[in-house]
Amino acid sequence: MVSRRIVSFALILAGVVLCALAGLHYLRGFEAQRQARLVFKKTLETASVAPPLSAIPAGKALARASSPQGQPIARLRIPSAQIDVIVLEGSDAEVLEKGPGHVQGTELPGGHRGLNNCVITAHRDSHFRNLGWVRNGERIELTTPRGLERYRVVSREVVDAGAVGVLAATATPRLTLITCYPFSFIGHAPKRLVVIAEPEPPSP
To answer: What's the fold here for domain 2-199?
Structure first.
């Protein structure tokens, strides 16, 4: 009887600790996004008075386009999925705890490096937890220091975790959003949900 009580207490204690750790994880993510919004707001204010990239020598323009790991670089909005987050540079574990991350080696948000495919990834249990709501034809907005870009979702598919082809450069501009799948899977999910959007044609 005593041993059962000890086991029960240990299980309860373990549950409390796990819940506390999960709560701390979400709290850190919330605070990181709050700080990122402040930093990105200042970035936009600075960009509004800075000279355009076309007026800067090529070498300096490239340096200005690059951002340090973890730096806020864009605001991503998907109204239909109630997603409104600040995108950070990089996609390692530290960055993804704070928010969606731009996968380095792919096109920059708002960039024009000839890679075209801008890839952004985030965790399925936090900043991209509603990405599964997104359907074809729905709008995605991406705000960068270069301005507001509007996209429409053209496809969504589930691929294996090792499907690196979704990161490849493309012939035309696109925005690729990736998160783990299935959403209800416990542990490291074996699949990835990939949402692809293309720029809206300019308004007449």
So the answer is: Sortase; Chain: A; (2.40.260)
